[in-house]
Structure formats: C-alpha cells, structure tokens
Design a protein that fits this description.
Elements (H helix, E strand, L loop, with lengths): L9 H13 L3 H12 L9 H17 L3 H15 L3 H60 L13 H8 L3 H30 L6 H18 L2 H19 L17 H20 L3 H17 L6 H18 L2 H17 L5 H16 L11 H13 L8 H8 L2 H4 L4 H12 L6 H4 L1 H9 L7 H19 L2 E3 H8 L9 H13 L5 E4 L4 E4 L13 H10 L5 H23 L1 H108 L14 H28 L2 H55 L3 H91 L1 H15 L5 H15 L1
Antiparallel strand pairs: 1-3, 2-3
Keywords: Coiled coil, Cytoplasm, Initiation factor, Protein biosynthesis, RNA-binding
Pfam families: eIF3a_PCI_TPR-like, PCI
InterPro entries: EIF3A (IPR027512), eIF3a_PCI_TPR-like (IPR054711), PCI_dom (IPR000717)
Length: 914
Amino acid sequence: MRGGNRFFHPENVLRRGEDLIAVGQKEDALQTIYEFLTSRRIRGSEVSELEPITLLFIELGTELRNGKVVKDGLHQYKKAVQNTDEGLESLQQVCKHFLEQSEFQLTKAEGKAGAAAEAAVEKSVAAAAAAQKVLDTYDDVEEEGDDDDEDVQFAISPEDILLSAVSTDDTTDRSNRQLVVPWLRFLWESYRTVLDILRNNSKLEVGYCFVSAHAFKFCVKYERKNEFRRLCEMLRAHLQTVSQKPNDRYQVTNPIDLGNSNTLQRYLESRFAQLNAAVKLELWQEAFRSVEDVHTLMTLSKRQPKPAMLMSYYDDLAQIFAVSGDNLFHAAARQKYFSLLLQSPIATEDEKKHYASLELISALAVADNASSERDDFSRRKLHRLASLLSMGSTPTRDSLIEQATGPQVLRYTDDLLKQLKEVLEDDFHPLSFAKDSQSILTGIESHGDYKQFVTPLLNVIVGKIFSEVAQVYQTIKVDFLVKLCTLQGKFKLSALDIERRLLDAASDNVVSVKIDQDSGVVTFRSDPFSESLENGTSSTLAEKANAALQLTPAEFVRFQLSNLAKSLSQSVRLIDVTQTESVDRELKERALTEANAEFYEEKEEILQRFGVLEERKTKLAELKKLETEKASKEKVTQQLASKQAEKERAEQETVRRREEKMRREIEAAKEKEKKQLIQEVNSKGIIQIDEKEAENLDIDKLRVMQLEKLEKDQKETETKMEGLARRDDYLERAERKYQLALLEKEAKEQSLNDEKEYDAIRERHIEQARKEHEHDIKIRDRLQRMVSAYEKYAEVARSEQNNLYAKLKIHANRKLEEAKEVRIREFIVKKKVEFEEELQRKKEEKLRQQKLEEEESRRAVAEEERRKKMEESQLSRDPERRIYNELLAKEKNGSLAKFSDKMTLKKLRRKYAN
C-alpha cells in the first residue's frame, strides 16, 4: 500500500484503523484499510493477519453504507487468499460476517422506524384524548347553560384535534422510506456481491447455496419482486457459465463439476427453494422458468430427489397450471402429488382427504378436448409440459379420471365429489342434470377449496350437455337448450353466454351446429359429407365415435370402410384357417429375413459410426494441438511485438529530430524565397513593397497582395467588356419577340387537350360511383330483412348486460356500505381502546410517580438521620469539633462577645477550614 511512500504492516494498519475509529474518523479508517487491501503486496501476507483487518473493514463499510468500496475490497481479499483452503474458508467467514452486519443494520433501522411509528401513535392517541376532553367539556357547558361560556378555556389547539383524526399509516410509510428502504437496498446489494464472490468454485459451493437460500428468504419476507427476478437471472447465468465447456487457455481454479452427485443435489435444492419463493411471491412466469431449471437439473441427476422436495415441486406446478388455466396438467400435477403423499409416513388423514378430493375434482374439471393436438406447436407444447411432470406421454381426461377414481383415491375422497362423479360421468342425463346436481353444485360453491373449479366444471358440464343433445336431437329450440344449461348459483349462465359457448363448441369441433335466430331453433347438422370432421385426426375422431351414444351419419360414412375392412379380415380368418396359417408363416419368415438383413446393415452402420467417432477424436486431438501451437506462437508474437514497439519508439525519436532539422531548413528557405518574391514584385511594377516593412509579412500575405492587385485589374477589364455586351442585347430582344406568337399558339392547344382529358376522367368517376351506389343499394335491400332480428338480438343482449351491471352495482354498493360500517366500527373501537389504554397508562404513570416521590422522601429522611448520626459520632470522637460548631452558631446569631471565644474560633477555623 502506498501512503506517504511507505507500506503499512497488517498489525500497524489494524492499529491505525482502531485509533481513527476511536477519535470518530471512521471514513478515514475505512479508506486506510481499503488502500491496504487493494495493494498488491498483501498477496504474500498470512490469512490470519488479513482476516481481522477485513472483518473491521466489513464492519466500517456496512456502518457507513459504502457498498461499492466493500465490494471492491472483498474481491481484492479473494484474490489474496483464494490459493489455499484456509483462505477460502476465511473468505466464507468474511462473507457471512458481511451479511450478518447488513442484516443487523437493517434490523436496527426497523427498530428505529417502529419507535418513530409508536411515537406518532402515542401523539395521535394523546391528541384524540385531548379532543375527547374538549368535546366532553363542551357538552357539560351546554348542559349548564351559556352563562359561563367566557370562563371556559380549552388547553388544546385545532392542530391537535385534526391530528387525532389522521391515521398514522402515512407516518409509518415515511419512516420506512427514510430509515428502512436504504438498508433494504444495501442488503440486496450485499447478497449480489457475496454471490458474485462465491460463484463457480467447488470449495465455496456450500456457502454459495447457503447465501442464495437466504437471498430467497429476504425477497419473500420483504416482497422484493424486482430483486427476485434479477436474482433468478443472476443464478441462471452462473449455472450457464458452469455448464459451458471450460477454455483450455484459461484454467479455472476449483471448477464446479455437475457430474458430482452432491454438487448437483445442492444446486437442485437451491432451485427448489427458488421455485417455492416464486410461488409465494406469485411471480408465475419466473416460477415456470424455475420449474424448467429444476427439470433440467433433475435430468442431469443420477439419483432421485427427496420425496419432500418432489411433493413441493408438484404442488408448485399445480398452482402454476391453475393460474395459467391449464386444467389438464393441473390435474396431472395433483395426481403426482397425491401418489407421493400416500407414500409419506408423516402424512395425516386430513391431508390425504384434502388432496384426494383435489385430485378428483381437478380431473373432473378437465375438458374433453384438452389433450387434442391440433398442430405441431400444440403437440410440442403438450410433450414439453408432460416432460416437466416426468410423464412419457401427454395425459388424457380419461386416464386422469381412471386414476382419480381408483380405490386408493376414493378411499379418502369427499362424498360430495363422489356424487358429482356419479352424476357427471357414470349416470349423466342432460335433461335432468340441472335438477339432480343442484345440491351437489351448491355444496361445491360453499366449499372454500373447490371455488376455483367452478368455471372449469361449468365448461365441462355445458360441453357434455351440447354433445349429448347433438347425438339425440337434430333440431332443438334455443329456449329449451338454454333451460337445460341453466344451473343455479355461481354456475348460472345467461342465455347470451350459453349461445356464445355453443358457438365456441362448434369452433372446437365438439358439435356441428347452425343457429336460426328468426325462428329460435338450433340445428345440429348431420350431413354425411360435412367438412367439420375433416378438422380432426383419425385417432381423436375414433375415440369420439366410440364414446358417443350413437354414430351420426357423418361418422357412419367416415368409418364405414374401416369397419368393412375389419369385418372382411375376420371373415377370411374364419373361412380358411390353413391359408391364414400359411400366410402367417410366410409373414413370419419374411420378417425374420428382413430382420437379419437389417441386422447386418445396422452392424455396418455401427462400425461406420465408430469410425466417424474415432476420426472426430483424432481431429479434436489435432485441433487441440493446433490450439496449443497457436498459443505458443501468439506468445512469441507478443514478445516480438514488444521488441518491435521499442524499436519503433527509437525510430520515431530519430524521425522527430530529423523533422525538427527539416523544419528549420524550410523556414530559412521560406525567408530566402520571400526576399526573392519582393524583388520580383518590385521589378514587375505591379506593387511596390519596402523590404523593411516586409519583415512583418510572410510569403502568403505577399501573394495575397499581388492577387488583390491582379483582381482589381481584372474587374476593370470586365467592366469594359459589359459595355460592349450591351450593344448586342437588341438581337436577343428581336428573337424573343418572334417566339412569343408561337408560344401562345402552343398554350391554347395544350389547354384544349387538358379539357378533353378532364371530361373523360370525370365521366369515368361518375360511372364508377353510380355502379358502387347501385351495389350498395342491393346489399341494403338484401340485409333489410335481418334488421328486425338484429335489433331484437341486440336489445336482448343490452338488457342482459344492463341487468347484470345493475346487479353488480347494487352488490358493489352494498359491499361498500358494509365495508364503511365495518371500518367506522373498527375505528371507533380502536380509538376507544387507545383512549382507555392512554387513561390506564396515565393512571399507572401517576401511581408510579407517587411511589417514586414517597420513596424519595423516605430516602431523604433516612439520609438526614444518617447524616445526623455521623455528625454525632464525629463530635463524640472530636470534642473540639463540637466547640467549633457551637462558636459558629454564636457567630451567626451575633452572640459571640468574648475575646477568648473569638480567638478560639479563629484557631479552630484554621484547623477545620482545610
């Protein structure tokens, strides 16, 4: 360290820092230690000497809230001690101490903010009590009469009365902003600094995971959502750096090995904590990214994570899917969670009943077409989500319901959900479903855990009603269909919503439907060659056909050929058994022959692949050798470049000297040339220049003077030429006079042509407008017959929306009034409690003050008695002291008359005065 051209020994630096702290110069102490830590000479110091200095540096930097200096100092300390195991252990302890100090300062700031808030509350309570006292006094005065109004005095200001009615929330927020928020930011920067220091080192990974877990807790405790996002991105970047292949040119000390099971398990636990924190903060996008991180690490891990972690993982996944509205994978996640819960030895019966019920109702809430793969994008998405749940294939509604209705699940399932499963799956009747399920749906509405499934269940119920009705009826009244789909409570839908859901079902290929608004009839189309079936795959259509009550004509035509082929194949097998067996033998032999042929082909392919791998390995070795040679060549090149740079500097110095010499020679040549130019100008007689005056002139000015003289002469010549040119202007005027008649004729012809072209364009525009008008009239006449139906439909929709708005407004106003009454009652109760507490506190304070006064009086009496006793004992031991006191009393009273008494008093005063 350079400070006054001397290097401080670690002990001296520590002593110097403590001395500066003792005299109150903490900033100077921090700067002194910082300069010491950033010096290169500390690299040779012992860890035991550096650690106390660094700890003091941490405490000072944290107290002064100088995070930038602390960060730089910690990085320098890491460089100094990272080469030994003792140094790395010390680094972890220093980082831990840094976080502890930051958390301590934050706690201290919270205490100060709490004290400030309590003081504000006490002041508000006192103001409220004073205001109440004023009101009580005013009431008493009114009862007694108005005669004594002038004698009444209030010891309270209007500000105190206003203060009693103001909440202390603003004061608390202001205290937090001033005291707590700066330390929150400092603690967050402390976590970032420590994570950056401890990252990507296998011997520091325990501390790294520990700090990351505490950072997650910090974000959850103080709801720091932005900081949590940045923390996740930072940890993700660290993991990506670890996963990358290290560069051979830059060897990393103690690199992280994800192949190590313990290391991978630590990182996996850290990502589980990240996922839990994201769910608690309701950052669902960040939670899904955390799920992907967890899944990536789980695929790398050779051993299965702990069951408790997996249960938390599936529970968080279920919440994410529930928020995103993906009911299919929400039910799959619930199924995974409950299967692990059954294996847990500490699971209670209530937990099993709760999660078994959630698994069944989530499976029932899955739509029939939830697992349909419409295109490649949806197929990849479903497979990706299935892989997050460790599923080999995409789950379906039937498979989820089959697992949810197993004996292990139904054993713990709620009876209400068993009844729902029976009426919805086992014995579904669209005509009587609304009546049969009324009590069940009411129970689901009132149950707190099932409220989130109201909308998905409603979609499933309405879809099943549409599907069942479409198989039985060809045409049906809209009012009758609305009646079938109208349920009670939160499951109730308006006619407009039911019609909208019917159109959605048609767009999803659940039904093929046509709505006649004039007659109020819904027609379920059954054209055998309808194009609606072309939008689905063969497998999904076959499943729908097998699950249907009866085949529609379109499905019958579509599957007729496949059913005929199956029947003919079975008939052939029954008619000619021998031929079938011979054909089977031939097919078997052919399959064996093809398998043998493919075996040799696969063997050749494996050998070729092995050769390709060997070739790649050789190429990689050659490439590595080339990179090594390239690195050595670059080192030699750098050495040559440094030598070349030194040589160039010497050459530049030589060139500079040469240029200086040339500059002096050029100036001498210019001076000589100037003299020659003056002589030449004077000899030509253009201008006359005195050589003595020309000493202040350079060559350029001389040339300018010569050019100005020449320009002056040229202007005089041009003036003479203009006079000659004016004489030729009459020729130009004659030519233009002749051209004028020709130009007027050409202008008239052009005007006539423009008028003709304008008339033609105008006629075309008029004709086009006429045709468009006639076309618009035809469209108006064709659509005129639909106006009444449209107005009727719009009126119904508007009335429903207005009724719904009115109901919601009444409900909202009622809730607002109830909330107001609750807030008013709470405020009154709160103020009464605060007033009573204040009265009680004042009584206790008064009693405590009385006790203190009594105790003080008793203590004073005892002290006086003790003093008198001490004086009596002193007087008994020293008789002259008694005489001295008696003489002093006589002197004060003026009764000291004897000369002998005065001399005795003077003598004793000299003795006892000192």
